[in-house]
Amino acid sequence: MTASEQTAVRVAVRVRPQTARERSNREKDCIACNITTRQRSFTFDYLFDPSSTQQDIYNQSVRPLVDAALSGYNATVFAYGQTGSGKTYTMGSSSWDGLTEDDLGMLPRALKQIFEERGRREQSSNMILRASFLEIHNEELRDLLSIPSTLPFGIGARRATLQIREDPQGGIYFAGAEEREVESFRDMCELLEQGTARRAVGSTEMNAHSSRSHAIFTLIIEQRLIRESDFLIALNTSDGAGTEDGANLAEEEYIVSKFHFVDLAGSERLKKTKAEGERLKEGININSGLLALGNVISALGDEQKRHSVHVPYRDSKLTRMLQDSLGGNSRTLMIACVSPVDSNSEESLNTLKYANRARNIKNTPIINRD
Ligand code: ADP
Questions:
Q1: How close is the Cα of 22 to the center of ligand 1, in Å?
Q2: Residue 241 above 50 pLDDT?
Q3: Which residue, judged by its Cα, is nearest atom 9 of ligand 1?
Q4: Which residues line ligand 1 (CB under 6 A)?
């Protein structure tokens, strides 16, 4: 087993290509020199450059988590980065309407794989899939599937009040959240469409459509696995006389796993957004939530090395709600998204530092001293 396979948390960095606007502005592409001129070296599990496709990223970094979830492990994929760095594109956590097959993000690709697997199973009833779609905005948890879409958030809007609860086994659930059973990929598309329409969006100096909330799409996979014992197989391959008795020997196992896809709010520093009033409050909450997440992920890395480390799950709604899916046997992937252009280099460096800390590898701190 390699060092990277032993870690509970894996970190990928994705550098998106320049957008049409950046190309027409003849922006300087600077991510490579950004890393070296500041004399920093970082270690990540995967590095995806602008030529990497959604398929490349899925196959290398997300597919192993889907395989694990189908085997009963909880899994979480985060997209982290400043607004406009490609989080939503990478995750595929907004409407898929009008997207080409190649553009499909990690969420639809994972769902496709899971539905394909479900179809391969002899009886589809052996796998039940339920989904919820929540967001955290200003440290308030909202259900994106049960608020009337005609009402905006804010004055007069009916808010679904959700509570984060823990069951006796340590499992986290969201009291009051709608969990929809989904039968097909098409059902999932509709559900995502509805939730996306209800996400809180605000306007900042950086991006008129920037999302100021964390969006958490959760798939609950319930499986009834029937394992035939060796004895049963032996009986069935004989003259058939023992088949009925043998059927009683099949072991039934019921497993439930959760797969979270988290599109985090933009990580940009407050001074860059020039936010005031409500926007400033949102920004402060976003930054403290992201800090709490970084602390939890980093503590999980320490926990692997030495036991009895305090993991501060309760410091934010986000970490509390994901508590049973971070650490332990869970699989976690952080995709740090960065813009390639020079004008974003400061934010890109901050993203790399955050991701590096999450990865919790002690690097040789400085290279290329000159
Ligand atoms: P964020 O969610 O971080 O705010 P978006 O996902 O909305 O950023 O991406 C910003 C813009 O860049 C969008 O127009 C998106 O389609 C485009 N984009 C992001 N990543 C890629 C990519 N890898 N390939 C092509 N276009 C991309």
A1: 12
A2: no
A3: 86
A4: 16-17, 19, 81, 83-89, 210, 337
- Closest by CA to 266, choosing from 141, 87, 137, 96, is 87
In whole angstroms, how far apart are CA 35 and each of 18, 43, 62, 247, 348? Answer: 18, 12, 25, 61, 9
Grouping H, G, I as helix, E, B as strand and the rest as coil, residue 107 is helix
- Which range, 66-70, 266-270, 327-331, has the best average confidence (pLDDT)? 66-70
Q: What CA–CA distances, in Å, run from 215 to 144, 277, 325?
A: 9, 23, 16
168 has pLDDT over 90: no
Q: How far is the CA of 191 from the centre of ligand 1 (A)?
A: 22
Give 280-343 as a DSSP string.
HHHHHHHHHHHHHHHHHHHHHHHHHHSS-----GGGSHHHHHTGGGSSTT-EEEEEEEE--BGG
- CA–CA gap between residue 203 and residue 176 (Å, rounded): 30
- pLDDT, residue 128, reads 92
Taken in order 18, 22, 28, 33, the sign of the CA dihedral is negative
pLDDT in tens, 259-277: 999 999 988 877 666 667 7
Question: From the alpha carbon of 19, which atom of ligand 1 is closest?
Answer: 12
Specify whether the CB–CB gap between 91 and 192 falls below 8 A: no
Index of the ligand 1 atom closest to the CA of residue 50: 23
Calculate how far, in angstroms, residue 162's C-alpha sits from the geometric centre of ligand 1. Answer: 31
List domains and CATH numbers for the chain.
3-359 (3.40.850.10)
More confident residue, 207 or 193: 193
Amino acid code (one letter) for 147: I
* CA within 13 Å, CB half, 218: 27
Average pLDDT of the chain? 78
Percent of the chain with pLDDT over 90: 31
H helices within the chain, ranges in order?
3-6, 20-24, 31-37, 54-57, 63-70, 87-91, 106-120, 185-198, 230-236, 243-247, 270-273, 277-305, 317-321, 345-359
Residue 266 in contact with residue 82, Cβ under 8 Å? yes
